[in-house]
Write a structure and sequence with these properties.
A five-stranded mixed beta sheet has the order 1-2-3-4-5, sandwiched between helices. The protein contains 13 helices and five strands. α1 crosses α3. By secondary structure, it is an alpha/beta fold. The two termini are 22 Å apart. It has two domains: 59 residues, Helicase, Ruva Protein, domain 3; 180 residues, CRAL-TRIO lipid binding domain (Phosphatidylinositol Transfer Protein Sec14p), CATH 3.40.525.10. This is SEC14 cytosolic factor family protein. GO terms for molecular function: phosphatidylinositol transfer activity.
Length: 316
C-alpha cells in the first residue's frame, strides 16, 4: 500500500491511495469475502474496505480476514441495536459524549473525561463506548470517515483506569473500527498518565500512536494544535476555547441521543438482544470477576508508579 497511508500530519488528515490501486484491492477483497448477506453488505462499502486495507497496510488477505472478523462480531454483538436507554446509566456523568461542534474539517468530536468514570461494569462500559462510536460515525458528513477525540484529564488519577477495560477498548477500536480515529488530543495529562501511556504504547498500532497528541494548556506550541484544528469560538472553555455554553448536560444530551436514535434507526425501543443487559445485570455479572480484575489492575498500576517518568512534553 502507498506509504502515504503511514503519514499523519498534526491535524490527523491523511493522504489517500491512487484510485486505481484502491479499486483493484477493493475488488480483490470482495472476491475473497464471497457472497454476503444484505446486512453484511451494508458494512462493506468501498470506503469501509479501504479503511480495512489501510489498517493492514494494503495486504489484501489480512484486510479480508480482519473485515470477516468484524462482520462476525457485528452479527453477534449487534452494535446497531444498542439504544440510548440501554446505556444511559453509563452516560450520566459525561465521561464520553459527542460535542456540539466539529473540527475545521467537519469531523465529529468525541469528548472523553476519564475522571468522570461512574460504574464498574466492564460490559456496560464497552457497550457504552460502542454506542458512542456508532453515533459519532452516523453523524459524520459524507466526505469524512474519521473523528477526533478530545480527552480531558482534569481530576484524573490511576484509580480511574481499569486495565481490563483499557485492553478491551483498544481491541474493539483497532479491530472493528479501523481508521476511524483521525486524531486524539490528550489534554493536560498528569505525569503518572504519561508513564502509563509509555507502558501501553507497544500494544497500539504505530499509526494509532502517531495520531495521539499531548497538549498542555501552559504550552503555546501544543496549544496551537487546537487553534489550527478548531474554531476557538465554538470550542469548550475546558479545552481553552471561548464557548462557555458548551459542555455536558445530561438531560439535554439524552434528548439529543433519543432524537439520533429515532433519526438513524427509526425507533428508540430497547432491542431484544440487549434488553437482558441492563445496567444492574451487567454490574452483577461483572462483580464475579471484580477481585481478579482489581488484582491485575493493581499490579499494572504499581509497575507504572515504579517506572521512571518521562519529563518531555511532546508525544507524536
Amino acid at each position: 500500500m502507498n506509504s502515504d497511508y503511514d503519514k499523519s500530519s498534526s491535524n490527523g488528515i491523511e493522504k489517500s491511495l491512487p484510485p486505481d490501486e484502491y479499486l483493484n484491492k477493493i475488488n480483490e477483497v470482495r472476491t475473497l469475502l464471497g457472497p454476503l448477506t444484505e446486512k453484511s453488505s451494508e458494512f462493506c462499502s468501498d470506503a469501509a474496505i479501504t479503511r480495512y486495507l489501510a489498517a493492514r497496510n494494503g495486504h489484501v488477505k489480512k484486510a479480508t480476514k480482519m473485515l470477516k472478523e468484524t462482520l462476525k462480531w457485528r452479527a453477534q454483538y449487534k452494535p446497531e441495536e444498542i439504544r440510548w436507554e440501554d446505556i444511559a446509566r453509563e452516560a450520566e456523568t459525561g465521561k464520553i459524549y459527542r460535542a456540539n461542534c466539529t473540527d475545521k474539517y467537519g469531523r465529529t468530536v468525541l469528548v472523553m473525561r476519564p475522571s468522570s468514570q461512574n460504574t464498574k461494569s466492564y460490559k456496560g462500559q464497552i457497550r457504552f463506548l460502542v454506542y458512542c462510536m456508532e453515533n459519532a460515525i452516523m453523524n459524520l458528513p459524507d466526505n469524512q470517515e474519521q473523528m477526533v477525540w478530545l480527552i480531558d484529564f482534569h481530576g484524573f488519577n490511576m484509580s480511574h483506569i481499569s486495565v481490563k477495560v483499557s485492553r478491551e477498548t483498544v481491541h474493539v477500536l483497532q479491530e472493528h473500527y479501523p481508521e476511524r480515529l483521525g486524531l486524539a488530543i490528550v489534554y493536560n495529562p498528569p505525569k503518572i498518565f504519561e508513564s502509563f501511556y509509555k507502558m501501553v504504547k507497544p500494544f497500539l498500532e504505530p499509526k494509532t500512536c502517531n495520531k495521539v497528541k499531548f497538549v498542555y494548556s501552559d504550552d503555546n506550541i501544543s496549544k496551537k494544535l487546537l487553534e489550527d484544528l478548531f474554531d476557538m469560538e465554538q470550542l469548550e472553555v475546558a479545552f481553552g476555547g471561548k464557548n462557555s455554553d458548551a459542555g455536558f448536560n445530561f438531560e439535554k444530551y439524552a434528548e439529543r441521543m433519543r432524537e439520533d436514535d429515532l433519526k438513524f434507526y427509526g425507533n428508540t425501543t430497547v432491542s431484544s438482544t440487549s434488553a437482558h443487559l441492563t445496567n444492574s445485570d451487567s454490574e452483577v455479572s461483572d462483580s464475579e470477576m471484580k477481585q481478579l480484575e482489581d488484582k491485575e489492575d493493581e499490579k499494572i498500576k504499581n509497575a507504572t508508579l515504579q517506572s521512571p517518568l518521562d519529563t518531555t512534553k511532546t508525544y507524536t
